[in-house]
Amino acid sequence: MRAPRPIWQFWDAQGRELTDRFPDDHPWHEGLSLAIAHVGNTNFWGGPTYQPGTAERAAGYQQLENLGNQAHQALRVETSILGSANSAIHITHELEWLDERVLPILSELRRMTLTVEDAQHWRLTWHTTLRNLSKGPVHLGSPATKGRAGAGYGGIFLRLAADYRDGILVDAKGNRGESVAEGHASWLRQYSTDASRPSVRLSSASSQPTWFARSVEYPGLGPAPFAETETTLASGDTVELEFEMTVARDAFSPDAFSQDASTQDPEVTP
After folding, report:
1. Per-residue pLDDT tens digits for 55-70
2. Residue 195 in domain
3. Which of 35, 92, 188, 206 would suit a FRET pair with 212, their CA atoms being 20 to 30 Å apart?
4. Would you say residue 10 lies in a domain?
5. How many domains does the chain contain in total?
């Protein structure tokens, strides 16, 4: 049921897992990764594929022989010292997205930078360029664009550890809870039910990206660029995806947010 791809696993300063992998509820969720449910007819998300209804069958999820694979091509890693306590790791990764017949559909150039501010505060930036390698157009979409309301997942997605389940989701506008799940805001922040755990803040290059987020069913969130409309790439065309994740030790304070706090963010306590 997996769609093999590069996976990033993270731990907090106490050595506890920050991300989950192979959870029982969705075993194809794996740490932090880039996964798209509909790339043409290929599923690079994993698990069953949502199929629209036809005269012969009802709409729903089906386990098909259509799982893709993100194949490694080249990797370069560099480090830099930014100050007495700060450092950064720069990663350039080239991949090919192969369909179920092992034919290339997309190429990916992925650039990531992990910046460590101190033991309790670090930031990851991610920039991806996807290029259509096929001879015809390729449509990038989600179950939502195929007709399943509320299922706009697909893109850079973070599956958090189990103790973030039932935690507090907050967006840049001050909205809280799963009402932010398919909303538009410049960032989302997830808090754990365990106050000793760091918060995780995600933002996207888009000024008001669409988000896909869950906290009650399972803890997972990410920008969802294909939630509302498909993106069509002609042969040779590209699409850019950008993302930033900040992990910081801070406690949730209701007073730090208001309904009109469009840019406000709680202070980080190192």
Report:
1. 787 889 999 999 999 9
2. yes
3. 92
4. no
5. 1
